[in-house]
Structures are given as structure tokens and as C-alpha cells.
Design brief:
This is DTW domain-containing protein. The chain is an alpha/beta fold. Helices cover 31% and strands 14% of the residues. Strands 2-1-5-3-6-4 form a 6-stranded parallel sheet.
Length: 198
């Protein structure tokens, strides 16, 4: 029998994270395009980001029929947060800059690339990238390399750059609690053996 689930954060009700999820406003609009395989993932950080940001939207799918509308909210310039040769480093807004619609594909690197392949309009967007060398707090997963962040971490880092000196660190509180809960559930010994090479 399935455990009762919080309808908002989708966690088991005994581990509900809603009390830790902030309600942060941002000049930047965040559009999260989530691969369907991520929806029921225990560490669904895109959902946490969408719940914690007032100006965010989470859309699940592989092919997004309404992508032209999603990518063109009035007054915003769409940019794809995804590495690539043409990706420009993010920089802080100046007074005359139009706010960005930051489009964030959510899934494994392979699934995220598939979303771009299946949605040519998405792949054609100008790209922006985070500074290199960021270290993930995602202690439950071996990152494929430096700078490989979870979705919520990437969004926080992007917003911290764009909207400095505003802080978006509160978005990471439910993420940290999620990690701690997973470690507690598996037990310290298992965590040390599997994730710290102990």
C-alpha cells in the first residue's frame, strides 16, 4: 500500500517539506521543463524550485506543443540555461536590461539533451551558463564532473548572479532537508560506504 503523500511537495506526509519551502519573488521568470521520468523521483529538486519561486512555472513533458507561448511571456527575453560552446556567462542585470525568462531543462544530462533534440525551438534559444567549478551539495549522487549541479542548485546560482545582491539561498533549505532525510533513511554506514567511498 502506498504511503500517504503531500499533494504539494509530493513527499510522504511524514516527510513533508512544505514548511521549509520559501515564497521568493524574482525579477527573472523561471520556466522548468521537466522530463517525465523525473516527476516521481525521490529527489525532485525542480519541483522544490518551482514551489519556492513566485515567478516560476513547471511543465512536464518530452515534446511541448505550447512551447512558442511558453517561451514568449510579454516583457521577457528567453535564455536556455544549458552549457554549450555558444553559451554566454550569466551576469548581473543592469538598470536597462529586460528581465530574462530562464528556461531550465530538468532531467539527467542525457534526458535534458533529448528534450533539446525533440524541441528544436528550445535548442535554438540563446544559451547562458553558470561559472565553472561550482560544487554541488548533492551528496547522494556522484556528479559527472565539477559544476554538475542539481536543478535547484543551478537555479539558485543563476539567480544569485542575475539579481545580486538578492539572496536565493532559502530555496536550498528544503533541498538540504531532503538530502539529510535520505541519508538518515539509508543509515550513516550505508551512506559512508556508497557515497563517500568508505
Amino acid at each position: 500500500m502506498a504511503r500517504p503523500q503531500c499533494p504539494r511537495c509530493l513527499r510522504p506526509t511524514t516527510y513533508c517539506l512544505c514548511g521549509l519551502i520559501p515564497s521568493l519573488d524574482s525579477r527573472t521568470r523561471v520556466l522548468l521543463l521537466q522530463h517525465p521520468s523525473e516527476v516521481n523521483h525521490a529527489l525532485n529538486t525542480a519541483r522544490l524550485a518551482a514551489l519556492g519561486l513566485v515567478n516560476a512555472q513547471l511543465v512536464v513533458g518530452e515534446v511541448f506543443e505550447d512551447l512558442p507561448d511558453l517561451l514568449n511571456p510579454p516583457g521577457y527575453q528567453a535564455r536556455l540555461l544549458f552549457p554549450g560552446e555558444s553559451a554566454q556567462p550569466l551576469r548581473a542585470y543592469t538598470a536597462c536590461d529586460a528581465p530574462l525568462l530562464l528556461v531550465v531543462p530538468d532531467g539527467t544530462w542525457r534526458k535534458a539533451r533529448k528534450l533539446l533534440h525533440l524541441n528544436p525551438l528550445l535548442a535554438a534559444l540563446p544559451r547562458v551558463a553558470l561559472a565553472e567549478g561550482a560544487v554541488s551539495r548533492y551528496r547522494l549522487r556522484k556528479a559527472p564532473g565539477p559544476g554538475a549541479l542539481s536543478t535547484v542548485e543551478a537555479i539558485v546560482q543563476a539567480l544569485q548572479v542575475l539579481e545580486t545582491p538578492s539572496s536565493f539561498e532559502p530555496l536550498l533549505r528544503p533541498f538540504e532537508a531532503l538530502i539529510e532525510g535520505q541519508i538518515a533513511a539509508m543509515g550513516e554506514a550505508v551512506f559512508m560506504k556508497n557515497h563517500l567511498g568508505g
